[in-house]
Each structure stands twice: as C-alpha cells, then as structure tokens.
Amino acid sequence: MYKSEKKTIFNVLAIYLSSTLLLIATLFTSYYFYQQEQLIHNEKEILKTHSLELEDELLTLHQDSTENYKYPRFKNFKSAIYDVDKELIFSTLHEDVKSLDTEFFINNDKSYYILPIKPYYLGAAYMVIEKDTTPVDFLSDLIAIAIVVVLITIFTSLFLVKLVLKPLRENLHLLDNFIKDTTHELNTPITTILANIETLDTKNCDEKSLRKFQRIKIASLNISNLYQDLVYLLLNHKASFKNEDLNISNILNERVQYFTIMANAKKLAFDLNIQDDVVFYADKNKYERLIDNILSNSIKYTKKSTTITVNLTSSTLSMTDEGKGMTQNEIDSIYEKYRRFDNIQGGFGIGYSIIKSIADEYKIKIIIDSEINKGTKVTLKW
Amino acid sequence: MVKIVLVLIFWLTMLNADSFEKNCLECHTNKFQLSMFMKKYTLKFSSEKNIKKALFKYLKNPSYKKSVLPFGYLNKFGIKNETILDDDELKDMVDIYYDKFNVKSRIY
User: Fold this and answer.
1) Which residues are CB-contacts of A5 (< 8 A; sequence separation ≥ 6)?
2) How many domains does chain A have?
C-alpha cells in the first residue's frame, strides 16, 4: 500500500468515523437521558399514588376520636410527616431527610418524594414518601450496543474507503506492471549498448563525431541509472543484500567520476571536499543507489555552468546544487513515489523514494535545505 | 441542695397544675372537648409554635373571626369572654394545655 493511499484511507476514515461516532454518541446520550427521565417519571408516579394513600389514612386518623393515633404503616413504602415549621412529627423512614425543598430525589437506592399538604391532618404540612428505587440496568446494555454499532461502523468505513480507492489502486498497479515490463525489456539493450560503448575506439573520430559519441554515452548512462533504480524498486529493495564496511570516500569519488560526463554536458564543476577513508557499514549497491540518486538529481536540476559542492565527513555527506530550489510543500512531498515537480526533466519521480527507503534502512537522517532560485542542499547524517 | 431544688420543681409543677385546673378546667370540664379544640388548632396551624401563638391571640382577644370552631358550634355556645389572666399566666396556661392535649405526642 502506497504512503499516499494510506494517508487518504486514514483521512477519510478519520472524518467518516469521527462524524459517525459523534452522531452515535449524541443519539446514545440522548437515549440514556431519555431513559433516566422515564425512570424518574415512573418513580414519581408510583410515589404520588403512595402519597395519596397516606393522605387518606391521615385524614381518617385525624377524624378518629381515639385517645392515641396509630400512624399508618404500609408494606411497599415508608413515610414521614413534618409540621409547617419542618419539624418531624412522626417517621417510619430508614433515615431522616435533610431537606424538604426538593420534590424528588434518589439516595442510597431509595427514591424520595416530598409533597406539601393542606389542611394539616395530625399537624402534617409535608409528607415524605420513601420506596426502594426500581432497578433499571440499561447502561450496560447501551454500552454493549454502542460497541457493536461502532465496530460495524469501522468495518463499513474500511469497506467504503477500499471501494472508493479501488480505481486508484488499479491504476497504480497498472503503472507498476508497466514499469516492470518495461524494465524487463530494457535489460538486454542497455547491457548491449553499454558494453559496446566501452569497447568503441574513439581515437580516429573527428570532433563532431566525438561530441555525438559523448551524447550517446551520457544518454546510455542515464538509461543505465534509471534501469538500476527500477530494478531496485521492482525487486522490493532486495536486489542484493550484502552489508559490509564500505570505504564511502572511494565510492563517492567513483560515482562523481561516473557522472562527470553528464556534468560536463551542462558545464558543471564539482567542488569536492571528501574526507579520506570514511567507512560505513552497508550494502554497496544500495549505497551507490543512494549517492547516484542524490547526485543525478543535483546535476539534473542545477543551472548550467554552476558548481555542485560535495562534502563528506565521518558522519555527514552533503551535496549542494545551484538550481531553482524547492518550496516547503515540495520538500514535504518529495519522498512520495512518482512525485515530480518538473516535467521538463525526465524520470519517473522515484529517485527520492529510493533515497528515503535506503536511508531508513540504514538509519540515515536526510536533511533537505532549499531556497527558491538559490539551490538545494541535501545532507545525509548518520 | 438537690433535695431543695427537686422539691421546688415539684411544688411549681403542682402549682401550675392547680392553676390550669382553676383557670381552664373549671369551665372546660369535658376533656374530650379540649382534645377536639386542639385537633381543630392542629388542623389549621400545624406546628407547636403556630398553635400556641394562635391560642394566645384568641384567648387574649376572642372573636368569631379568630375562632377555629365550626359556625354551628359558635352559634350555639358563642365565644368565650376575654381572659382576665396576665400575659405570663396566659402563656403558661397555653403551654400546659398544649403539653396535655397536643396531637403529636399521641401518635405512636
């Protein structure tokens, strides 16, 4: 899966999931509060009925002409009566209520309902009804349903994103296959051209033919370079794998030499500050790919008759050109495969993708400093 | 000393009881009637403080408007005469009446 594809999937998923989850959360929270309201409403209704029962009993009791009054007791609820100054008259409650100002409240799994009454039977100005709260455990069910809904949403989102990105994936696969086939077909002619160029005798050539010959050589080198990149990509970065202590000072000198013909064509000069015998543990082919890609990019994008500065120390390698430079947005997306900023120059836009892949493999940090119309400096730090 | 205090309290209680007998029960011989009055006051005024306040006000200056008794009863017996007791004595009598006949203490 490509980086850009991953990013798109992540972004779409993030937007889709966050909006859907927000909706689900809103719905479930509303439902939860609605259920709570219903519970309170039902409890209140039951308690109200009980309060009417108590009021009837108090009325009957008040009208009794007996010496003493037996306070009414009920099986399914407890009660208390308070006078107009909120002093307790009589109570069968489990615990006294602290305030008579709240009409309904739940405390310690008991529901309380407070009702003012008039006239004051037995002096009662307030009745307090207490009953066990009806246990309704809908929260755990709600959470379980929410988890299921969220999971379904995640799977649906993934399916939708994949469905939407399918044409894009197919096109990218098509491009990959095309490059794969092209690379395969290039192998034989490139080998033949390069082998024959090396054996050509240029001693008897006139100046005009020599220039043509140089152009053919540069073009062949370009094709060879591109071929190497494509092979690296197509073999999933496993073209060769033999890590060893490399004298990168020598390798760098060789590669600069290799690109001299191309540099000469643009009348470029090399300013080389290469420390001797710098050693780095890596695969030689991969390290050459790394240098070749940075160097060929510098040559490609620098202006004519300028200088390319190459510095090598024991822990850094930098190459500076005097090209048109890049914006920060271009630098940020430079590692994306097939990303090209200049269609005039050839190439597939895979150079920096390869650089990044090799640098990551050997834990090399890439620093790109660029200024528009001044040039670009690429530094490798290990 | 303790004995003297106890004797004094007992004597004062007896004295108060005697005063209640003399000042109230001489006319209101029927205890059921007194109990009924208290129920009427409780039904209308609810708390001890309010009942005592209303009783004091009525006894100090009785009127049809202030009475809690039903119209038929008032029509038949009329309202009582204004008290001849001073405020302190009247307050004591109201306290004794409430202690003896209040509804709250009879609920069990």
Assistant:
1) A165, A168, A169, A172
2) 2
What ipTM is given for this predicted complex? 0.83
Same domain membership, residue A339 and residue A229: yes
In terms of residues, how long is chain A? 382
- From the list B32, B43, B50, the residue facing A62 with the nearest CB is B43
In a domain, A23, yes or no: yes
Residues of A in contact with B45 (CB under 8 A): 84, 120
A152 inside domain: no
Please tell me whether residues A100 and A207 are part of one structural domain: no
A208 touches chain B (CB under 8 A): no
The helix (H) or strand (E) run that includes residue A19 is helix A3-63
d(CA A149, CA A146): 5
The closest of A179, A166, A161, A182 to A337, measured between CA atoms, is A179
- Which residue in the set B47, B104, B107 is minimally distant from A84, CB to CB? B47
- Say how far apart CA A305 and CA A226 lie, in whole Å: 24
- Judged by CB atoms closer than 8 Å, whether chains meet at A121 and B43 is answered as yes
Cβ <8 Å between B103 and A84: no
Amino acid in the structure at residue A137 = D
Quick: pLDDT tens for B54-88.
Answer: 999 999 989 888 888 888 888 888 888 888 889 99
CA distance A48 to chain B (A): 22
**Same domain for A358 and A211:** yes
**Phi and psi of A108, rounded to 5°?**
50, 50
Last residue of a domain, one of A132, A159, A176: A132
Last residue of a domain, one of A93, A108, A132: A132
The distance between the two most distant Cα atoms of chain A, rounded to a whole number of Å, is: 145
Burial A205-230 (b: 16+ CB within 10 A, else e): eeeeeeeeeeeebbebbebbbbbbbb
By C-alpha distance, the chain B residue nearest A123 is: B46
Strand partners, A376: A370
Q: List the domain range (segments joined by +) for residue A215.
A: 200-381
Alpha carbons A250 and A312: distance in angstroms, whole number = 11
Contact A113, A55 (CB under 8 A): no
State the pLDDT at residue B57: 93
CB contact under 8 A, B47 and A65: no
CA distance B106 to A379: 99
Which tens digit of pLDDT belongs to each residue from B40-59? 999 999 999 999 999 999 99
Residue with tokens 């004091």: B56
